[in-house]
Amino acid sequence: MLYFLKNKYITLTVDSFGASMHSIIFLGEERLWQGGDAWNSRDVVIFPVVGHAYPYTAEGKEYNPKSHGVARYSEFALVENSLDTLILELSSNAVTKQTYPYDFVLSVKYTLKKNTVKITYTVKSKQGEIPFYIGGHAGMKAPDGEATVEFENEEEPIAYFVDTNEAMCLAEVRTLELNKDMFRKHKTIQFGDLSGGALKARVKDGFVYTYKSDCPLYAFWSNENDGDFICIEPWWGINDYPQAPKELKDKRFMNFADENGKSFSYSLSITKE
To answer: What is the C-alpha to C-alpha distance for residues 214 and 205, in angstroms, rounded to an integer?
Structure first.
């Protein structure tokens, strides 16, 4: 089912299947990638693994997760739908336990304020402490799949590369040029150890997407050949790689939550110059 939030700047549509964003219309113009051959999705709520994860062990058994986990394949229940706030919720069930053995409640909250969408994920355990990754994966419209990312602060990030355990320390980074040539070379780029400042992504049709979060890692991705979109993804986790620990709780950037819950959030603002 589709749910809607609207103010004078943004009309946001969210799909209860996956609890992901379905449309972001800013001042009358659609800015969320609407799917296609280059990438059939629009947005993904990532939980409890990131990326095309390898089989892992938990509670003494091996599990073979689907890409990005269980949330994207699940129907969420409505908790609240007011003028500026939408909350959807997923509880563990027989299907989620086929690839993730823990009892949990995951809520996804969307809040509109002027030209900004704030997304908050809250994970609560029903059985003591549980391990998990979580994150966002919105595909924003970007002609030719290109964007210039400007960092609020001069950064010295650690760049992690998908499917390897390689990491590279970079220095004096203020901008990052994203384009198809880069994605053909690197597939997905993951930047960790950032200062917490805002990221601005400028695209060729004059729009600017501003991301703010305390996430430990941002991922940058687009289809390497086609598609007018860019994904700038706040991650509380990292894409799996062959040399990673097989035990879920031992993987890098792992989060843990108990019955008190733990929340994670990012905001996405849209402007046009």
So the answer is: 28
200 phi/psi in degrees, rounded to 5: -115, 125
Q: Residue 209: is it exposed, middle or buried by C-beta count within 10 angstroms (0-12/13-18/19+)? A: buried
How many Cα atoms occupy the beta-carbon half-sphere of 23 within 13 Å? 15
The residue type of 273 is E
Phi, psi of 252 (to 5 degrees): -60, 145
Considering Cα of 20, then 244, then 38, then 181, what sign does the dihedral take?
A: positive
Q: Report pLDDT digits (tens) over 64-117.
A: 999 999 999 999 999 999 989 999 999 999 999 999 999 999 999 999 999 999
State the Cα angle at 90 between 105 and 95, rounded to 5°. 100
How much of the chain is helix, strand and coil, in % rounded to 5?
A: 5, 50, 40
